[in-house]
Amino acid sequence: MIVNYKLGDKEIELELIGDTLVGNDEVLLLQDENLIEKTAWNNEGFSIEKFVSDEDFSLIKEGLTKLVSEKIIEAGGEIDKNFTLENYHLYVDNTIHLTVAKLIQSGWNVSQFPIEIERINKRISAIIGIDVTTKAKHVDMNNFFLRIVRPQNFQDNNPPHRDVWLDRLRDAVNIYAPICGSNSHSSLGLVPGSHLLKESEIERTVDGAILNGTSYTVPCVISIKNEMPKLLRPNPEENQVMLFSPYLVHGGGYNFNENATRMSLEVRFWKI
């Protein structure tokens, strides 16, 4: 089966293996915690805001560079004084990258975050007007994640999906904070307002999708209201953060840059 969707100004075509379904006549968000309900952007489902101080952002990027460097070495690779997050793809082959991706799949505990995580909790709480924390009450999770998407490599990002099709990711609010290589050719895609769609308006794979031979843990959106999904590419700049509802259809963030790896800090927050 061939799956097509629009990502910014480009059309993506993928070969899908897997069964599909249409959900029930219900809006999942109306059953759950809507952590953006107090915001002016509740109907759109996302917003771009100032993230942290410039000093803190520098500390975050420096700390993440150290963490990624350690994982490259653990995976059997090498780095030198010229290594940066932007040129990550020049230091890894496919085997080493896939090993790094597996090592960081579950993220890092927030105790390893480069600055005190409570400062991030307070910043996100201030933006949405609800006190939130990275520590989930319903599952043993208190992590932060780094998404690494190499240029011109179409297996490094998830397909369009809703996080909340995995029950443990419901009742949250997400952030996408670009660390390097994020621009209009590489940033995370999303469908504005899709957090308010009924499940019956979305066709998706039954379980995690197999696309172009790569397996994913999240189901893939096939169509929205019987039409090809069309994802906008909001473009937060360095030291900006995109907050968005995990009920939004998002993903498909292919990196069309010629020579820059895209890395983004991705964290989930729950109500205290």
**Averaging pLDDT over every residue, what do you get?**
95
CATH topology: Jelly Rolls
Count of helical segments?
3
- Measure the end-to-end span: 43 Å
Under the CATH scheme, which architecture would be assigned? Sandwich
Question: How many strand units?
Answer: 17
CATH class: Mainly Beta
Helix coverage percent of residues? Answer: 10-25%
Structural class: alpha+beta
**Strand content range:** 25-35%
Unreliable residue stretches: none
General form: globular
Rg, Cα atoms, Å:
18 Å
Oligomer: single chain
Can you write the helix and strand succession as a string? EEEEHHEHEEEEEEEEEEEE
What about the largest sheet?
A: 7 strands, antiparallel
Number of domains: 1
Topology of this protein?
Layout: E1 2-7, E2 10-17, E3 20-22, E4 46-50, H1 54-74, H2 94-103, E5 108-109, H3 117-128, E6 132-133, E7 143-149, E8 172-180, E9 189-190, E10 202-205, E11 210-211, E12 214-215, E13 221-224, E14 230-231, E15 240-244, E16 250-251, E17 262-271
Parallel strand pairs: 1-14
Antiparallel strand pairs: 1-2, 2-11, 3-10, 4-15, 5-7, 6-17, 7-17, 8-15, 8-17, 9-16, 10-13, 11-12
Helix pairs in contact: 1-2
